[in-house]
Specification:
Blueprint: H1 26-57, H2 63-79, H3 81-117, E1 125-126, E2 129-130, H4 135-164, H5 172-178, H6 181-206, H7 209-229, H8 247-257, E3 279-281, H9 298-302, H10 313-330, H11 333-339, H12 345-351, E4 353-354, H13 370-395, H14 403-435, E5 444-447, H15 452-476, H16 482-511, H17 529-552, E6 559-563, E7 566-570
Parallel strand pairs: 4-5
Antiparallel strand pairs: 1-2, 3-6, 6-7
Length: 584
Amino acid sequence: MEAKGYTLDGTVDLQGRPALASKTGKWKACAFLVGYEAFERMAFYGIMSNLVNYLTTQLHEDTVSSVRNVNNWSGSVWITPILGAFIADTYLGRFWTFTVSSLIYVIGMILLTMSVSFKFMKPACTNGVCSKASSSQITFFYLSLYIIALGSGGTKPNISTFGADQFDDFDPHEKHLKASFFNWWMFSSFLGALCATLGLVYIQENLGWGLGYGIPTIGLLFSLFIFYLGTPIYRHKVRKTKGPARDLIRVPLTAFRNRKLKLPDNPSDLHEFTNTGKRQVHHTPVFRFLDKAAIKDGSSSSSGATNYQPCTVTQVEGTKLVMGMALIWLVTLIPSTIWAQINTLFVKQGTTLDRSLGPNFKIPAASLGSFVTLSMLISVPMYDRYFVPFMRRRTGNPRGITMLQRLGIGFVIQVMAIAIAYAVEARRLHVIKVQHVIGPKQIVPMSIFWLLPQYILLGIADVFNAIGLLEFFYDQSPEDMQSLGTTFFTSGIGVGNFLNSFLVTMVDKITGRNGKKSWIGHNLNDSHLDYYYGFLLVTSIFNLGAFWWASNRYIYKRETKEMKEGCVEMEPPKALDTSLGLQV
């Protein structure tokens, strides 16, 4: 294959012909993709960053209801990729799933823009005072939002993995290029988020919500046009299994059927495929009970006359990988809950503070989220150009540090951020007490820039967390389930949002019982938000311990691919991680 100039990983073009390595893929193909990611993130954060303010000021929802509805919608945006990834991995492939889903996304954006633009679709306002929205107006608004969530379900898990597919894992040069792909991919995502939190939020509050939603809609259409210009040079991975997710059910069932059989002493005696062109995953000693699914002829002897085909070691190891990733996924839920504060309680907290910047200008509270993005944009190049080479020289790891080390550092920084958020809120309540601030709309004589440290630290943490998680779940997923694998990343954020929605609701109900002061009341100037942040801080510290336990038990994937020229092995360098005790 290499002599003919084709890619070594078996990728093809849109017509199904083997892809030429020199004319397809790599960064020249990704250049057409990053524009979509930037505009899509601008659209998402243009909605997400200021949605809690729209719900409270335009639709007149109370604080707890608005936070709950924002988290439920955001959670849906991040959960629906499970469906989109399953469709891509099992039926349509990444390219066509993305194509259909992006159309749904654009329709949702158009409907949302209409709902905030046309007078009959939004509450009537007189002298800045808006009447209560009708049930039909609320239904149309939320229908538009959830159409966007449905469209995002097919675009989010497939566009980033489709970009990663443009690099050949079996070509050393392209594999080196791919090591930086997710860093720069997320850089474009952060750039789109920055435009939203700096520009769109201001436009929404000062020039109109219709214009604030219309701009990213037009940008999204433009980015799709650019995306399809690159179609001739895209590489497409060929699905080698019709239903890869079925192995997650078949392997445990087969292992259960063979539960009375004895495992061979040598793992090489287990069943494995040969000469299929698929990557073989090396056997690992974890979850040994699943190895019984790969006992040769075991299924037929254990089930009487019925002959069951044994699973291969690669299928068994794929199931093990998913189980191992599930443990890591569980310990990402609390950090995702912390992240959910940025677009909910942090924003409401900011609206109570002094937002003046000069005599005639007020900073929109949601615009402070731009400092999260700015810290990301500054940190990503520093991480990629300075931190990684420095650590690479010390550890010998091509990534500088292991993927789980990267996550651990991010989680520690997040704990620092929520600790600072607790301290700042305690300070705000002290000022309220001293200055006798009582009313819900009274401004606390304390600058909004007191919130900057927690925003900046969460941005730095996300350089380690968000990029690290996306790379980890893509890299560690079984070959035929990489779209589905990356939904561990998106679903973790989604469940984190739902968890925050649940926590806010329950904390409000429990602490506000019998006429007591709620921690998260409608009037934040007469609440105890510091207690809620303290609760999140303690939970995060316990979660760090859980992450330590799970990461020390995780074994990274090792692969080999059989080819006509011989075997090509994809194996991480054997370096011992001295800080977490993780073997790479």
